[in-house]
């Protein structure tokens, strides 16, 4: 009995079984139902790496609480543009998921999304001034008009009791709250999407590793496959390949040899979280509370105390505590980083190492942090936290992008980047944050870059799936309220538009 893919040719091959490949596959199945698609995932189930619920923050990034999207300028002002962009992008994700739910293409939304208010929380005079400035910069915008602000201990305690209980009443604190925030289990959503694909003609292959990729004479790609469980090998030819393998994407992109891959490197960052599954404690906290990152810390290291829903159970998560490992995937190899070094990316990587000594110092400090120090960090957000109520878990790997820069030689980029071959036969995604929450607009960008001739003809279908597509909702308050209410209903979320 063979376990290697029976398909020898496919219009589209998706490498990786995470939220990105699953989202792209769902789009293509809706837009071009007759195209043949094969998906290959090296692990035995979908969504086990960065898409897994305990491997990411699961925020449903909408910039409602993430302070790193609105950094203060030297004069103290706050530019809301990036926060507005990310919120607009998340609205498209909500609309696409709503479309799939309404047409019964995926299962109940209660399996992957819940209403959980998003809060920003700061301590101290200067931080309070910053948060107030941020609130003033955002509150007039349509997508942030429900946001509330308070410096009152009593009010903040009503929003999130655990962060105030036991705190010095004289301590200066401030918080914002957006009631429409969400918690998303991207592992569960990925499983729903891959199930939909498998039920609609897509060949879904688990336990299959893509070990090689080479350009074919007809302009497509020949992929080498391995099934480690039996040692079998195989091949498949694809007209189009999407490298959506998370941290594993860089090596495959480099193997493709496309010019667009030159100069890119990766900087892996690992992390840990405290998890509390005590239902009595979890019931006392219904919020995602984001603070400010330490000086020199990467944006992904912003501390937060979150309500999480995984497998129908409510729990609490605090962290992350950053670490460093040279593997690019949680299930990867310690050789991932050294084996990614190429002549074309060595200069950008050395430049980043030179210009990010503060990050290096931060990571060394984090790696050396004792358990007691980690508990004390938790108590800054939950003063009465008891060590015995929390277990330390290892989160997923994040591989931040290193890319060429004409002035500095190289820069470290905290975000995602779509890379598309000029002939439209291959696309890839590098990077992480905000990642999963904006998978829908990211994959639309990839479709536009990779299928420019088809893309114009897809506009009507895209608009049907996402009524806000092509519209800036922040400039259209009535449509924004209408779509928020509609998606909240179909995704079984609490709508706050009526109280605005």
- Mind describing the biggest β-sheet? 10 strands, mixed
- What share of residues is helical? 25-40%
Question: Distance N terminus to C terminus?
Answer: 61 Å
Number of strands: 20
Q: What integer is the average pLDDT?
A: 93
The number of helical elements comes to 16
Low-confidence stretches: none
Radius of gyration: 22 Å
* Proportion of strand residues: 15-25%
Broad structural category: alpha+beta
Structure description:
This protein is α+β, with helices and mostly antiparallel strands and 500 residues long. The chain has a domain at 264-416. The protein has 16 helices and 20 strands. The protein has helices spanning 19-31, 81-102, 125-138, 153-159, 161-164, 186-198, 249-256, 279-282, 336-339, 346-355, 357-367, 371-379, 439-450, 452-455, 459-465, 477-490; strands spanning 9-15, 37-41, 113-115, 118-123, 148-150, 173-178, 182-184, 203-206, 209-215, 221-227, 232-243, 265-276, 288-290, 304-310, 313-323, 391-394, 398-405, 409-413, 416-420, 426-431. Strands 4, 5, 6, 12, 13, 14, 15, 16, 17 and 18 form a ten-stranded mixed sheet that branches. Strands 1, 2, 8, 9, 10, 11, 19 and 20 form an eight-stranded mixed sheet that branches. It has a two-stranded antiparallel sheet with strand order 3-7. Strand 9 (209-215) and strand 10 form a beta hairpin. The radius of gyration is 22 Å and the shape is globular. The N and C termini lie far apart (61 Å). The model has no long low-confidence stretch (mean pLDDT 93).
């Amino acid at each position: 009995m063979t376990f290697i893919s029976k398909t020898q040719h496919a219009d589209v091959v998706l490498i990786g079984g995470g939220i990105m490949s699953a989202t792209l596959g769902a789009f293509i199945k809706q837009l071009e139902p007759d195209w043949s698609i094969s998906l290959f995932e090296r692990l035995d189930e979908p969504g086990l790496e960065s898409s897994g619920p305990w491997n990411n923050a699961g925020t449903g990034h909408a910039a409602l609480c993430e302070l790193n999207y609105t950094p203060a300028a030297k004069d103290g002002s706050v530019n809301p543009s990036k926060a507005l962009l990310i919120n607009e992008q998340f609205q498209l994700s909500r609309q696409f998921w709503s479309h799939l739910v309404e047409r019964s293409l995926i299962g109940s939304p209660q399996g992957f999304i819940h209403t959980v208010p998003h809060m920003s929380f700061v301590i101290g005079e200067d931080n309070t001034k910053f948060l107030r400035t941020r609130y003033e910069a955002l509150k007039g915008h349509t997508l942030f008009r429900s946001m509330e602000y308070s410096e009152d201990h009593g009010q903040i305690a009503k929003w999130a009791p655990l962060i105030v209980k036991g705190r010095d009443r004289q301590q200066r604190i401030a918080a914002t709250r957006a009631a429409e925030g969400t918690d998303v289990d991207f592992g569960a959503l990925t499983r729903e999407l891959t199930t939909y694909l498998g039920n609609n003609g897509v060949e879904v292959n688990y336990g299959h590793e893509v070990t090689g990729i080479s350009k074919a004479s007809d302009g497509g790609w020949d992929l080498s496959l391995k099934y480690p469980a039996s040692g079998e090998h195989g091949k498949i030819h694809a007209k189009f390949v999407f490298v959506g393998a998370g941290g594993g994407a860089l090596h495959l992109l480099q193997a493709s040899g496309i010019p667009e891959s030159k100069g890119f490197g990766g900087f892996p960052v690992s992390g840990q979280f405290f998890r509390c599954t005590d239902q009595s404690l979890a019931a006392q906290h219904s919020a995602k509370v984001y603070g400010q990152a330490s000086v020199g810390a990467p944006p992904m290291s912003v501390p937060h105390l979150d309500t999480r829903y995984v497998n129908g159970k409510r729990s609490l998560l605090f962290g992350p505590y950053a670490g460093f490992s040279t593997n690019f995937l949680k299930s990867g190899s310690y050789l991932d980083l050294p084996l990614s070094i190429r002549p074309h990316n060595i200069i950008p990587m050395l430049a980043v190492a030179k210009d990010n000594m503060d990050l290096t110092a931060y990571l060394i400090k984090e790696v050396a942090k004792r358990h007691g120090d980690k508990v004390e960090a938790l108590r800054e957000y939950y003063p009465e936290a008891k060590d015995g109520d929390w277990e330390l878990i290892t989160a997923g790997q994040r591989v931040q992008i290193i890319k060429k820069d004409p002035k500095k030689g190289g820069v470290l980029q905290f975000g995602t980047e779509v890379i598309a071959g000029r002939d439209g036969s291959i696309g890839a995604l590098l990077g992480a944050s905000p990642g999963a929450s904006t998978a829908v607009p990211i994959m639309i960008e990839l479709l536009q870059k990779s299928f420019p001739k088809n893309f114009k003809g897809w506009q009507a279908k895209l608009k049907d799936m996402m009524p806000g597509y092509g519209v800036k909702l922040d400039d259209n308050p009535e449509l924004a309220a209408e779509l928020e209410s509609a998606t909240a209903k179909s995704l079984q979320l609490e709508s706050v538009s009526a109280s605005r």
